[in-house]
Amino acid sequence: MTSALGRLSDAEAMMLFDVLNVLPDGFLAKVDRASMGASLETRAPLLDPAVFELVWRLPPEWKVEATRGKVLLRELLWDFVPQQLVERPKQGFGIPISPWLRGPLRDWAEGLLDERRLQREGFLEADSIRDSWKKHLAGTHDCLSEIWSALVFQQWYAQQRHPQSSGDLRAA
After folding, report:
1. How many Cα atoms sit within 13 Å of 4 on the Cβ side?
2. Which of 81, 98, 104, 159 has a beta carbon 3.0–4.6 Å from 166's, enabling a disulfide?
3. Side-chain half-sphere of 24: how many Cα atoms within 13 Å?
4. Quick one: which of 3, 2, 15 has its CA closest to 60?
5. Closest Cα partner for 121 from 147, 169, 146, 156?
C-alpha cells in the first residue's frame, strides 16, 4: 500500500485525503444531518462506486487544472447546461440571519440588546451595540458579526443567570 501511495501526485494525494477525511467527516455528514432535519433524502451520484472507480483511474490532468477543478465534469456538462452556469464561481449556502433578525427574531434580539439591560449587566458597550443594532435594522450597514456576537453572549449569560427563563431562542 505504501508504494502505491508513493506514486500519487500531490493533487492525487490531496484528493485521497479529501475522500478519506473531508467527505465522510465533513461535507457528507453535514449534508446528511441537514437533509434528515428537513425529511429529505439526498444523493451523491459522483460517489457511486463505479463512477468513482472510473474517475479515480483517469490521469490527474483530466480532473484538475491549476485554476479550474473538475475539468472533465465541466466539459461534460457543457452539452446539457448553459456554460455560464457551469463556469461560475462556487457559492455557499448562507443562513439568512440578517433578515431573520429584522423579522421573526427581532423581538428576541431586542430583548437581549435592550439598552438598559446592556448597561445594567455592564459587559458590553451598550452605546456601540445599540448603534450597530439600529444600523442593522435600517439596513444601512453590515454589523452582523458584532450584533451576532453580542446576541450569543447575551443569550449565554441569560442562561447562566436564569437557566429556566432566559429569553430562550426556541420561544422566538
Report:
1. 3
2. 159
3. 5
4. 15
5. 156
- Give the distance from CA 1 to its chain's centroid: 35
Cell of 58: 483517469
Residue 64 in 3-state DSSP? strand
What are the grid coordinates assigned to 115, written together? 439598552
Torsion angle (degrees, nearest 10) of CA 156, 159, 160, 164:
-170
The cell numbers describing 166, all together, are 432566559
Q: Give strand pairing partners of 69.
A: 64
SS3 category, 69? strand
The answer to whether the predicted template modeling score (pTM) of the entire model surpasses 0.85 is no
